[in-house]
């Protein structure tokens, strides 16, 4: 399941991933992203993974259909526990035009601040 909400930054989306992502979640993400994309040239994403279980970050990206929208993502802030740092670093190499930063769950406010800069 994913929960998608507007982030505290105008051009950003907050995505909280918990458990498995369903087809309805993907459709909801795509609709929400396209609405935000129509309003802003580039979109920032706050990806909350600290409650996610049994899924890789690569799987999340595929499930969320983010691959086709990468050119529209300016910044991606990944909030997760330390076991995801390694994945975040690898992800940054796949997204040359997207700035990627990792934040621990207790630093979510810093992630939001970084997206606003």
UniProtKB/TrEMBL annotation:
InterPro entries: SpoIIAA-like, SpoIIAA-like_sf, STAS_dom_sf. Pfam families: SpoIIAA-like. Gene3D superfamilies: SpoIIaa-like domains. This is SpoIIAA-like.
